[in-house]
Amino acid sequence: MTRAIELLKNSFGVSQLYQHDVIDKDGKIIFTVYWHPLTIAERESIQKKSMSEDANEFALQLMIEKALNKDGDRLFQDGDKASLRREVEAVILQEIQLAMIEAGQNRGVEEAKADLKS
Question: pLDDT tens digits for 44-64?
Fold first, then answer.
């Protein structure tokens, strides 16, 4: 019988890759953001780096830390934070951040239960 930890890692592990297309007002894809699932350890690290209890700061730091291009390279550097806060429409950043935070929520407990039975 497969151990629960192996089922969790196989179904919800960090090897998964999510993506979100950033689209301009004309419907053209400007670029695609990729990321791996957020782990508890990463969440704790990002919370420390954001140095605030503010959810907006956490979401921005999450995006900076986790956003990748198709080659797996970071899209943003730590030094981009001020520019992102002051020079980019909030709604665009929030769209990316929300996609990252909600990633994987479509896969749920029922799928894991089905895996356990097989």
Answer: 999 998 888 899 999 999 999
pTM: 0.80
**Beta-bridge partner residues of 31:** 22
For residue 36, give both structure tokens: 């791996």
Domain spans in the chain, listed from the N-terminal domain onward: 4-117
Determine the Cα–Cα distance for residues 86 and 84; give it in Å rounded to an integer: 6
Task: Report residue 73: phi and psi, to 5°.
Answer: -90, 145
Note every long-range contact of 102-110, with CB atoms under 8 Å and residues 24 or more positions apart, other chains counting. 103/18, 103/35, 103/37, 104/12, 104/16, 104/18, 104/37, 107/11, 107/12
Q: Is the pLDDT of residue 7 over 50?
A: yes
Q: Which CATH number fits domain 4-117: 1.10.890, 3.40.1350, 3.90.1200, 3.30.2220?
A: 3.30.2220
Q: Using one digit for the tens of pLDDT, what is the confidence trace for 69-111?
A: 999 999 999 999 999 999 999 999 999 999 999 986 765 444 4
